[in-house]
Amino acid sequence: MSRAVVLLSGxxxxxxxxxxxxxxxxxxxxxxFRYGQRHASEIDAARRIAARYEVRDHIIVDVDLxxxxxxxxxxxxxxxxxxxxxxxxxxxxxxxxxxxxxxFLSFALAWAEVLAAGDIFIGVNAxxxxxxxxCRPEYIAAFERMANLATRGGVERTNEIHIRTPLxxxxxxxxxxxxxxxxxxxxxxxxxxxxxxxGAACGHCDACQLRLKGFSEAGVIDPxxxxxx
Length: 229
What we know:
Layout: E1 3-7, H1 12-23, E2 27-34, H2 41-53, E3 57-62, H3 100-115, E4 119-121, H4 137-150, H5 152-156, E5 162-164, H6 172-181, H7 206-218
Parallel strand pairs: 1-2, 1-4, 2-3, 4-5
Helix pairs in contact: 1-6, 6-7
């Protein structure tokens, strides 16, 4: 069985991603980051999901991006609420965390090299997303090229790295539909940028609006708890 490192945030996309990796026969090694984000509820969600799917190993990496700030997720900048969900792809919002996916993929690459795993799964999406530059196909292709220039296995061609992005061309509704077909329990997931202390989602940030839009278009009720019902 081939090994794969799966970036698991505890959100809707990364949980669907994990289900994809397992469906495709990979032995999953899940990696979650405690990066100084506003809340720990997504880390708790990642733990629940990793346990539910009985991944081979699940590690939580500490890297404090609050040291740099520059994002509403890693500083005291207010999280935007009630933006036009259909217009979120216009411009890069303040919830973008500088270089986050590059940092995450670099850690995943290091672990993959140690594990002799040739595949790294990341749940980026270029359709229903918030305008982040590190979610685009050209970025993923560039990182994969770099990975195979930067690692022993890539240079010696003994363990070439493939960055897997099965969700990149799907709408949020399509991701949800695929996840449900794979048996994903979305009540375990946490997507909100600004949940309350109990972990209930705000329902107003970009992540919540995109999630709610996706469930609505999929014709399914979102099972996650929200602050207002």
